[in-house]
Amino acid sequence: MKEFDIAVIGGGPGGYVAALRAAQQGACVCLIEEDQVGGTCLNRGCIPTKALYATAHLLQRLRGADKHGIGVGTIDFDFAVAARRKDEVVAKLVGGIEQLLKGREVEIFRGRASIEGAGRVCIRSRGVVGHIQARTIILATGSLPARPKTLAIDGKKVLTSNEILAIKELPESLLIVGGGYIGCEFASIFSALGTRVTLVEQLPGLLVQSDRQIVRDVEKTLREQGVAIHTEKSVESLDTSGDGVRVRIEGGEEVLVARVLVAVGRVPNSSGLGLEELGVRLDKGAVVVDAAMRTSVEGLYAIGDVTGGIQLAHVASYQAGIAVTNALGGEARADYRTVPSTIFTLPEIGQVGITEEEARKKGLNVSVGRFAYQASSKALCDGEVRGSVKIVADGDSGKILGAAIVGEEASALIAEVAVAMNQGMTAGELGRVIHSHPTLPEMIMEAAEDVEGMAVHKIGRRTKTE
């Protein structure tokens, strides 16, 4: 039986990065994946969603082309072509990862893995059973869409994010259950593509973990696109017996739609791996790890969504580096204080650190700087004037505590604030960094200056206590 230094179970953005990182350092590595490398993110999540998002964004811009003096006439949109393009993007990236793994001499085993004992992994594939031995195992099996028992998901009319990304025809109407980032992204995408969208959320508002002022811009755009938003409501029943799906919403309203998307979160993919038998500590299905990504069992690490922590692809990749470093004898610990995140709604949301509300709840002396897209020369030139930048700083030290951005390129702009926070910069120091003109990143500089009431292109002087 061949023995590996490290066996990685799961080939998503945590698993394949762990395999590559270990191989870069000379370890003998294998990767076990029962489906395609790239995991949910690449095959059924981040990437296919963003490919469709790019199409929706382009359509949105084309509809406003007349403001630039460009007449495009009737816009002919073919969803089948967009879906095919999405699949091509995914296939190209999957092929690229496979080449990277091959180039680093990572051995790939296709099949379902389970852990039978210390360093011993069983692999089942099409009735064939094999075994490998490894000094260290890194578990990176990700997560699965939550499937509430009260909502009969059939994969045909009532879908999860997995199935909706596989459709080849644009539904005339769609009801989305869940107003988190997954639900809001799909609401933005499908409404922009021409689907009549209804969004139902049990909580008082959408995107409850995001800055409230930022979310209002997204809610406004969704409503302008015709999305019917129901908050503080639940879906009481789904009837798929006729054409489409008849949905009963709390309060008595009934809606007939072609498809229903259930987007109420994701759960750790930890069952069937032999973890309970091995004595691995679990918490509601999530593998419990410390800051070094170690589990309760010697020689077993876990990273990514299966740990039940921050469910972001880039966090899984970051944790991969931590786990590999420690598996190979190093000492590394995870630090999540400056994790940027992006929600690809129309407009985009970018976030890092804590919100103003969270800072105030902690009793911190807070100073806030703001800058609007409509005051940016570059945003005006681009015709993208909806949105704002908000930087939250400690009122005593000036250290940046967090930031929230809504608007064009928010996904890219938030990275600058994340770097500044990582380096311990104050808002004043960030505001004194020279920024190229005219660019959108100038808004970061202006918002940072506004923390101290010194933004040049903003009327009125603010004080730290405002």
Automatic annotation (TrEMBL):
Positions bound to NAD(+): 178-185, 201, 265, 305
Catalytic activity: N(6)-[(R)-dihydrolipoyl]-L-lysyl-[protein] + NAD(+) = N(6)-[(R)-lipoyl]-L-lysyl-[protein] + NADH + H(+)
GO molecular function terms listed in the Swiss-Prot or TrEMBL record: dihydrolipoyl dehydrogenase (NADH) activity; flavin adenine dinucleotide binding
Keywords in alphabetical order: Cytoplasm, Disulfide bond, FAD, Flavoprotein, NAD, Nucleotide-binding, Oxidoreductase, Redox-active center
InterPro entries xref list: Class-I_Pyr_Nuc-Dis_Oxidored (IPR050151), FAD/NAD-bd_sf (IPR036188), FAD/NAD-binding_dom (IPR023753), FAD/NAD-linked_Rdtase_dimer_sf (IPR016156), Lipoamide_DH (IPR006258), Pyr_nuc-diS_OxRdtase (IPR001100), Pyr_nucl-diS_OxRdtase_dimer (IPR004099), Pyr_OxRdtase_I_AS (IPR012999)
Top enzyme category: oxidoreductase
EC number: 1.8.1.4
Keyword Iron: no
Family: Belongs to the class-I pyridine nucleotide-disulfide oxidoreductase family.
Protein name: Dihydrolipoyl dehydrogenase
Native source species: Desulfuromonas soudanensis
Phylogenetic placement of the source organism: Bacteria, Pseudomonadati, Thermodesulfobacteriota, Desulfuromonadia, Desulfuromonadales
